[in-house]
Write a structure and sequence with these properties.
heterodimer, A: alpha+beta, Glutaredoxin, 7 helices, 5 strands, 13% strand, B: alpha/beta, five-stranded mixed sheet, two-stranded antiparallel ribbon, 4 helices, globular
């Protein structure tokens, strides 16, 4: 059983309450089409569970098969440095079919963030150490592809359609003595 | 699942095609740790692909001075196309003729299917197996076990030398 070796900390990108009974951690890649599909599934889960679910996104770019994954992760981290991580994360996934460097600048402009700051972040790889740390932490936790999910620290194996994740999270809630 | 060679066994030597006109033998790699990753076939689905994952983790393997070899029964031309498509930066060996010959020696051949198990071996610098693992064929075993084995190996080697080196890969 693969378990999350790197605990969630305030340095993570977190949506939801720290007291939420269930934490869902995703290791994802902005260029991975499976992650693109999972994006909408997670939105549905968040809507369903409300405050019972905390969601954490960590970077796992497969840069050799996805040439834009690293720049996209840098773009999201750069926006994150200005408190706009989730808007950028969502923008990148919602426009995944036209993922490109111009898109990264377009989304930056839409969020009224500085294009110069993004240019600098992409050129200097300012956020690459963080992205690499996410990746390596994932490898050490048994992440073997994207997306990989952990529910309360335990890797979710097998299919991850809405119904599958719903069942897995419900099971965890029942274990915790909460009605799903 | 097949019974793969366990830790403590000397790894059988082999010479296999690494490109259509070039062979690589295991003994050439003596002096550094070697990772042998047997896998069923080229061209499995992209994002969960084991070889693509190892390609990304390669710099970590290299911190231990380790050499990674991927092995399957696919032919050298197939490997070449696969490696090019996935931008793989490590060699893929063809256990193609006689088919599965090397995999069989490692206990990593699925006779019923005619392809390799998902079997991993970590060899020390003298070619002895220090860790091996066979994953269910549908499950990508990830890289964690390999990294742990390399870590163990490097800390053991340091202690046998009776000194602590401030090497770049010390954790």
């Amino acid at each position: 059983m693969a378990v999350l070796r790197v605990p969630v900390t305030p340095n993570d990108h977190i949506q939801g309450d720290d007291d939420a009974p269930v934490s869902l951690v995703e290791y994802g890649d902005y260029e991975c089409p499976f992650c693109g599909r999972a994006y909408y599934i997670i939105k549905q889960l968040q809507q369903h569970y409300g405050p019972q679910l905390r969601f954490v996104f960590r970077n796992f770019p497969l840069t050799q098969i996805h040439p834009l994954a690293e720049s996209a992760a840098e773009t999201a981290e750069s926006a994150g440095a200005h408190g706009r991580f989730w808007e950028m994360h969502d923008g990148l996934y919602e426009n995944q079919d036209r993922l490109s460097v111009p898109l990264m600048f377009e989304l930056t402009e839409d969020l009224a963030l500085s294009a110069a700051a993004l240019r600098k972040a992409l050129a200097s790889h300012e956020f690459l150490p963080r992205i690499r740390a996410d990746f390596l932490g994932g490898v050490r936790s048994g992440v073997n592809g994207t997306p990989t999910f952990f529910i309360n620290g335990v890797r979710h194996d097998g299919p991850w359609e809405y119904e599958d994740l719903l069942a897995a999270i419900d099971a965890r809630l029942v274990q915790l003595g909460r009605t799903a | 699942m097949a019974q793969i060679l366990p830790a403590g066994t000397q790894a059988p030597d082999f010479a296999l095609n690494v490109t259509p006109d070039q062979k690589l033998s295991l003994s050439e790699l003596r002096g550094r740790p070697v990772i042998l990753a047997f896998y069923p076939a080229d061209w499995s689905p992209v994002c969960g692909d084991q070889m693509s994952l190892y390609n990304e983790v390669l710099p970590e393997f290299q911190k231990y001075g380790a050499e990674l070899l991927g092995l399957s029964v696919d032919g050298a031309w197939c490997h070449a196309a696969f490696a090019k498509d996935r931008h793989l930066h490590f060699p893929l060996l063809s256990d193609f003729e006689p088919k599965g010959d090397v995999s069989k020696k490692y206990g990593a051949y699925r006779h019923k299917d005619g392809f390799c198990e998902r079997a991993l071996f970590v060899l020390d610098k003298d070619g002895k197996i220090v860790w091996s693992y066979c994953s269910p064929v549908a499950v990508n075993p990830g890289a964690e076990g390999i990294l742990e084995a390399l870590e163990d190996l490097s800390s053991k080697e340091k202690s046998t030398h009776g000194r602590v080196e401030s090497s770049s890969y010390a954790k």
